[in-house]
Automatic annotation (TrEMBL):
<dbReference type="InterPro" id="IPR058678">
    <property type="entry name" value="ARM_PUB"/>
</dbReference>
<keyword id="KW-0808">Transferase</keyword>
<dbReference type="Pfam" id="PF25598">
    <property type="entry name" value="ARM_PUB"/>
</dbReference>
<comment type="pathway">
    <text>Protein modification; protein ubiquitination.</text>
</comment>
<dbReference type="InterPro" id="IPR045185">
    <property type="entry name" value="PUB22/23/24-like"/>
</dbReference>
<dbReference type="InterPro" id="IPR016024">
    <property type="entry name" value="ARM-type_fold"/>
</dbReference>
<dbReference type="GO" id="GO:0061630">
    <property type="term" value="F:ubiquitin protein ligase activity"/>
</dbReference>
<keyword id="KW-0833">Ubl conjugation pathway</keyword>
<protein>
    <recommendedName>
        <fullName>U-box domain-containing protein</fullName>
        <ecNumber>2.3.2.27</ecNumber>
    </recommendedName>
</protein>
<feature type="domain" description="U-box">
    <location>
        <begin position="8"/>
        <end position="207"/>
    </location>
</feature>
<dbReference type="GO" id="GO:0016567">
    <property type="term" value="P:protein ubiquitination"/>
</dbReference>
<comment type="function">
    <text>Functions as an E3 ubiquitin ligase.</text>
</comment>
<feature type="domain" description="U-box">
    <location>
        <begin position="216"/>
        <end position="292"/>
    </location>
</feature>
<dbReference type="InterPro" id="IPR011989">
    <property type="entry name" value="ARM-like"/>
</dbReference>
Length: 297
């Protein structure tokens, strides 16, 4: 594979977009994916000669018209883009457009597992690169619900972690205000976050992380829970109530004991102090579940 071949296929993809030739476009994108998988050299050549931006532009172009008719080419583009991370520059601009993000939310709400996985991985790149895109994403009907579902009904560790990253940016964005925070709490995100923390009973003799292999999701879980509780302004303190009733205090204390990164440790410590203020009123945990746990609080 050469630079000439990359430039030629870039031109053909652009032409396919203009003529709305989804079949031709899909086949061309599939050819790029095949090249990427053949060697790292091919991948570097594809990146160096602008194919990433061309693919992102094609995604935006095909997402502007009837999505039902362009599903196959849009899926192929997303699948190929996941092999080209990290995304940058023009590619993120095209993927962060209104039409592109509406298409991604539409994909997230679909039942196809591979499609949803690839979509949330690309969405993570888009949202993480610019917080200004958070508001655009939040305005799309079903955006919050689709991410919640990905966490509640996990596809794979990678997709779940990507979902946590997107949620984290949504609730930490200054421009997003409190809307997503309250909605996530009302939907039951607190319980789901705690389910990703260290399993209390097994961890007394082990030190597993979320999904046994990836502790990044644990760190994001703590960060999200910390943000939800710190920003809980409602009189009924929904976030605190739900967290305490499903064992947040014990699981966080256990996480602190088995060890975590310094930043996470600081957030866990602060969360424990916040939750400790309300334990007498709302906590509902069988003490036998944590009988071997040290309790300094």
């Amino acid at each position: 594979m050469s630079s000439v071949e990359v430039l030629e296929i870039n031109s053909k993809i652009t032409a396919a977009c203009k003529s709305e030739d989804q079949t031709g476009g899909r086949d061309l994108v599939a050819k790029i994916k095949k090249w990427i998988k053949e060697s790292e050299r091919n991948k570097r050549c594809i990146v160096d000669y602008g194919a990433v931006s061309v693919l992102a532009a094609a995604f935006e172009s095909f997402s502007k018209t009837c999505l039902d008719e362009h599903v196959s080419v849009l899926e192929e583009i997303l699948s190929t883009l996941t092999l080209l991370f990290p995304l940058a520059g023009e590619a993120l601009t095209y993927l962060g457009s209104a039409s592109s993000m509406h298409c991604m939310v539409w994909f997230l709400k679909s039942g196809d597992l591979s499609r949803r996985r690839n979509t949330v991985l690309v969405l993570r790149e888009v949202i993480s690169s610019d917080h200004r895109r958070v508001n655009m994403f939040l305005e799309i009907e079903g955006a919050i619900e689709s991410l919640y579902t990905l966490i509640k009904e996990p596809i794979c560790p990678t997709a779940t972690e990507a979902s946590f990253v997107v949620v984290y940016h949504m609730i930490t964005s200054a421009s997003a205000a409190d809307k997503p925070i309250q909605k996530f709490v009302d939907m039951g995100l607190v319980s789901l976050l705690l389910e990703t923390l260290v399993d209390a009973q097994r961890s007394l003799c082990e030190k597993p992380w979320v999904f046994s292999t990836d502790f990044a999701a644990t760190e994001f879980s703590v960060s999200i829970l910390w943000k939800l509780c710190k920003n809980e302004k409602r009189e009924e303190k929904t976030a605190f109530v739900e967290a305490l009733q499903v064992g947040a205090f014990q699981k966080l204390l256990l996480l602190l004991q088995v060890g975590c990164a310094d930043k996470t440790k600081g957030q866990v410590t602060e969360l424990l102090k916040l939750l400790n203020l309300h334990r007498a009123r709302w906590e509902c945990i069988d003490s036998m579940d944590f009988k071997s746990l040290k309790r300094p609080f």
